[in-house]
């Protein structure tokens, strides 16, 4: 591989607007700096200061999309967050991206970043990925959505979320023939590689942050497993009981996967000490509850698990851990739908709509 010291510097532009996803800017930016690339930060106003949605990164642009040409760069990177929705409204930024794609320049977009590619109408008949919330948008733009960490289609690189960033960034470096001193870049298809190490080196999640997130997930799944075991003991409706038992089985699988993941960090689990008091309170509540109370409580537990897993996924830049948390989120979401269906079927016509929040009602 050719060293950056032996040739002209690779020129890369990163498009930003306010509320970009911090890690989706920070990790590619840091890695490209380490590789010796010449980086331009492009905003819509030259005197603005742009802040990430999590408040971690603040950056001033070196230029605006209006001042530059696609031919000035070897690659353009589009981080996600809320920024792409603003970038796509800037015709100068969209024209820059369109020209870069048409000229064969490398264009890489992560998370919501493909929204700009949609605006440029350059996803038609291509394979691409992006954040799950814009999957349908990508498909409607004529692309074949692929649910993988990184999808490469000719000169386009797309990725789904912060958890994919080490793979996404490695793919960019490899395609640009860039290397980093004392760093071996693995093949992007290596699903066993501990990608978090690269993520941490480039400003992403630290080892301790990943371990804390795994322990948080184990604590949540362990507590609710104990809760669902109590629900099973109390429930007298055979169908409800069977459903609750299925939830218990799946939660045990989740806990096993999370604990296995912890072995990569040589860490243990101590959730029981924090969960004992809560379980005792729940046990007291169950004594006076019927089948429908339990079913509704179970539904709330599942909804909390979906939201908590989703938030943990957005905080981490470790592909292996995020893959487990994503599976947990999907599993719990499906269970939420099934428990919700059963609850509605049991309640039937007894469901009462909420009172309207009008002034008359309040009075």
Structure description:
The chain has 363 residues and is an alpha/beta fold. It folds into two domains: 4-201, Rossmann fold; 207-346, Up-down Bundle (Ferritin). Helices cover 51% and strands 10% of the residues. The chain has a seven-stranded mixed beta sheet with strand order 5-2-1-6-7-11-10, with helices on both faces. It has a two-stranded antiparallel sheet with strand order 3-4. The protein has a two-stranded parallel sheet with strand order 8-9. Strand 10 (150-153) and strand 11 (156-159) form a beta hairpin. Helix 8 (207-234) runs antiparallel to helix 9, helix 8 (207-234) packs antiparallel against helix 11 and helix 11 (291-315) runs antiparallel to helix 12. Residues 1-6 and 358-363 have low confidence and may be disordered.
